[in-house]
Amino acid sequence: MTITKFIAAAAALSLSATAFGAGTHGHGQNAAIGEPAAASDATRTVTVAMYDNYYEPETIDVQKGEVVRFVVENHGQLVHEFNLGTPDMHEAHQAEMTMMVEHGVINGGRINHEMMEMDMGDGHSMKHDDPNSVLLEPGQSGELIWRFSGDTTLEFACNVPGHYQAGMYGDVRFQQ
């Protein structure tokens, strides 16, 4: 973990859990960050290992229009997420992930898949099935295929409560 991430994590952990933000739907498609793509369009595969609470690699370089197949592996002891988005998207999504923990959908190292189906009203559930995100229990792996749209501030992050604040995020850098 870099010293900057360590300082940010220490400051963030001093906040109460209720301060972890509110906002609008934090995941899903957003033209500024790109769109899901077909595996056959991928020009390369990047393996991302998730640990408690960091990623390897910490930075991923991409080009505008590039399609990348991410193979995501959870090597940690806790449930972790690989989510592509802007910092604002992650902040908003953290409120949703907090709700998942509060309702027992995520409990340490387990996901209660039956609870994910729970009706939250207005046709919403706690399903975690957006194309820019993978949520995995320890020992699980998954994949995400993504076409990057262009220059924007983009990160990959785990938005399980406290994980982002502990430094579990990385940068997506656009190369020329």
UniProtKB/TrEMBL annotation:
Molecular function as annotated in GO: metal ion binding
Domain of life: Bacteria
Keywords: Copper, Metal-binding, Signal
Residue span, EfeO-type cupredoxin-like domain: 37-84
InterPro entries referenced in this protein's UniProt entry, alphabetically: Cu-binding_ET, Cupredoxin, EfeO_Cupredoxin
Entries under Gene3D superfamilies matching the protein: Cupredoxins - blue copper proteins
Pfam families for this protein: Cupredoxin_1
Statement: the UniProt record of this protein carries the keyword Secreted: no
Cleavable signal peptide: 1-21
PANTHER family: AURACYANIN-B (PTHR38439), COPPER-RESISTANT CUPROPROTEIN COPI (PTHR38439:SF3)
The protein, known as: Putative copper-binding protein
